Amino acid sequence: MLGYIITSIILIFFSVLFYYIFRQNPKAVTNRSLALMTLLLGFWSLVNFLENEIKSIQIAKIFLDLDFVLAAFSAFYFFKFCLAFTLSNFQKYFKLGYIITWLISLAVIIGLIINNIRFYRGTLIFDSGPLFIVYALLLFLYILLGCYEIFRKYLKATGLYKVQLLYVLLGLFISGLIALVSNLIFPLLNITDLNLLRLGIYGMIFVIGFTSYAILRYRLMDIRVIIRRSAVFTVLVLIITAIYAVLAYFLSQIFTDIFGVSSLILNGVVMAVLVALGFEPLKLWLSYITDSFLFKAEYKPQEVLAQFSDQLTTTLDLSVITKFIVKKLGEVFKTNFISLFLLNEKNNVFEKTADWGKVKEQMQQIDEKLFARVFKYLQSLNKEREIVVREEVKKANELLHNPILQLLIENLDKYEVNLIVPLYVRDKIVGLLFLADKKSGDVYSQQDLRILEIISSQSAVAMQNAQLFEEQKHFAAHLKVEVDKATKELKIANIQLKKLDRAKSEFISIASHQLRTPLTVIKGYLSMIDQGDFGSIPQKITLPLDRVYKSTLRIIGLVEDLLNISRIESGRMQYDFVKTDLADLAHEVFDELEQHAKNKGLRIDYIKPDKKIPEIMLDRSKIREVIMNLIDNAIKYTPAGSVTVKLEKLDNHVRFSVSDTGHGIEPDEMPLLFQKFSRAKGVQLVHTEGTGLGLYIAKQILHKHNAKIWAESQGSGKGSEFIIEFKI
After folding, report:
1. What are the residues whose beta carbons fall under 8 Å from the beta carbon of 510, sequence distance 6 or more?
2. Whole-prediction pTM value?
3. Are the CB atoms for 512 and 504 separated by under 8 Å?
4. Element at 394 (helix H, strand E)
5. What total number of domains does the chain contain?
6. Strands 642-650 and 603-607: what pairing?
7. Residue 330 and residue 236 share a domain
8. Are residue 383 and residue 349 in the same domain, yes or no?
9. Residue 390 maps to which CATH number?
10. In this structure, what CATH number is given to the domain that contains residue 59?
């Protein structure tokens, strides 16, 4: 009975192991070889057990031949697995070994390996054939070479890979040795004890034990998660089946005792309800139990990802984000330490930003050139975005012998780093996350690596956003300092400019006052000479004298304008506001300048208001100067055509306008019209004596009257219109 149980366990284990190893990566030679070896060993164990349970010699002979054939192929695939697992360059011998194995299997079938098969005291025995020694040596050679290759790699390997090799070597060597002795040596020594002959089957327990331990503890083939799920499902089915059977029996008894009948339908309904209610709690409990056995520090991936998502999307503080990342990852994976480095683009180095746990040797910063070379090399392999696992790099470099990878390995060993997680934003690496070994000694599973890949992409974006926010804050602070500094400098400069402006205004005022007195005297004497007070004037000096007189008037006008500007800017301009009839004032100025326009050949019109204009509080003399200036300018800058003066009442405003058909104004010149010493382009050719002060003074005077002035024009050569609006 014990033999049936052990054989069944071995067969189930090898079948499950075959399925999940092959499913994990069917394209890998290592997975295919190990999967086929486990399947063959499972069938060999079954056939080896059944050959002594069958009493028919013909069927027993078939099973014995199948026993020897399966043993040959199991040994061959054991040899192939060892070579693939150690990355040895013996692939070219696989086809030769495959052919030899088929030939030796054919020799088994035709009786060249074993013959004279018979039962002796209930045990199946046989005589060795002419090629039996060749068969035995071939199997021994397969097992010996495979174990030698693993042992050779074991001596050179380090870390996780070395531990995996050790357990694979021990399990296969012990089981293979027991199988060879019990199935080849014992029959040659005429040992017929069935229990001894079945030691080869029972020896498979060593393969099961060491392989299971390597899977659970050291991530062999990385199928631990799959085995956990299978274990949960299998146990769940067994428990539900057992519970269903027990409850069905008791319910049947209860219904029979109470109702006097036994109803299969009623039993089924009650059992379905109980199973439906108890399935999920039972599943969760079994998952917890298997997790505690298979995973010492298991975590719930969805909860971890949700916590990271919540934290990384709710803060822009770089310090808070980096500390959370290393602390949370340390708590989840139970590592010895975690260090986070971010790229400083100015210095081109990775600087430590945050760490967690106890670091054996501190790394404050890392030269970016080292990892630039590493990831450039990985990029050539299309693996630059993958997480760097120390043991996998070591294993790969045993074949590649790449100096860049060797330098990386030396640094990983020096600082006891197990994983390097690159942090990418688009195609640019912005940081590195270093994870040490787990405190439990467990390795990082594929689930761990997938979680780290997701978290790394989220973290990289969150940290870049935080850095941009920090830069913006620093820029804003720096900008504020610079603005404050510039404002202070502008204030100082403004004070100086005001002082200079006051000095200029005072100079203009003094100079103008000093000029006005002699100019007035000159004007008076010229007028007296012109009127003949000093005798008759010769005809030849009449014209020059008239020019001198007009020039004196222009100079006096300029001096008066400068004095007005000085008074306006210094606040000394005096205004005498009285109620004034603007219509009379406008008509008066129009009458005064009408003849001047007609002398120039222009048509000049005055459009009187159709409504009575109420009197307005004005400084009559100053508004008279403004109106005269506008009409006089229109006459000056209109070579031909007409000038129209218009006064009208609009709601609560009175509008005065002067339009002409003269030179017009370009749009880009409009903002300059009412500035000091500003004149439109080309007007100097028409009127050379202008100073560019009239419109500026007019605007300042109107400003004191709460009035507005502006100009409108369709462009050069299309005339212009100057408009003043007074509030009523």
Report:
1. none
2. 0.42
3. no
4. helix 390-400
5. 4
6. parallel
7. no
8. yes
9. 3.30.450.40
10. 1.20.1070.10
Nearest to 711 by CA among 700, 722, 702: 722
Domain that holds residue 163: 2-222
Question: Is residue 286, in this structure, part of any structural domain at all?
Answer: yes
* Three-state secondary structure call for residue 538: coil
- Statement to judge: residues 240 and 364 lie in one domain: no
Q: Which residues contact 211 (CB under 8 A, 6 or more apart)?
A: 17, 167, 168, 171, 220
- Tell me the pLDDT band of 721, cut-offs 50, 70 and 90: very high
The encoded tokens of residue 50 equal 């059944």
What mean pLDDT is predicted for residues 608-628? Answer: 90
Contacts 24+ apart (CB under 8 A), 326-331: 326/354, 326/355, 326/356, 327/356, 328/304, 329/356, 329/433, 329/435, 329/452, 329/455, 330/356, 330/357
Query: Which residues partner with 435 through β-bridges?
Result: 338, 419
> Residue 550: inside a domain, yes or no?
no
CA distances (Å), 217 to each of 294, 517, 704, in order?
A: 8, 113, 94
143 part of a folded domain: yes
556 occurs within a structural domain: no
Q: Are residues 70 and 104 in the same domain?
A: yes
- Is 82:149 a contact under the CB 8 Å cutoff? yes
Is the domain of 240 the same as that of 214?
no
State phi, psi for 342 to the nearest 5 degrees.
-115, 145
CA nearest neighbour of 80 among 27, 20, 142: 142
Give residue-wise pLDDT tens across range 372-431: 666 666 666 566 567 888 877 877 777 677 888 888 888 888 888 889 898 988 878 888
Q: Do residue 313 and residue 410 come from a single domain?
A: yes
320 and 274 housed in the same domain = no
Q: Are 581 and 615 in contact (CB under 8 A)?
A: yes
Q: Is the pLDDT of residue 643 over 90?
A: yes
Report the alpha-carbon distance of residue 113 to residue 99 in Å, rounded: 17
- CA gap 717, 641 in Å, rounded: 12
Is 581:618 a contact under the CB 8 Å cutoff? no
- DSSP letter for each residue of 2-16: HHHHHHHHHHHHHHH
Tell me which long-range contacts 289-294 makes (C-beta under 8 A, separation of at least 24).
290/228, 290/231, 290/232, 290/235, 291/228, 294/216, 294/224, 294/227, 294/228, 294/231
pLDDT single digits (tens) 313-369: 888 899 999 999 999 999 898 888 999 988 888 877 888 889 898 876 666 666 556
Tokens of 44: 């060999």
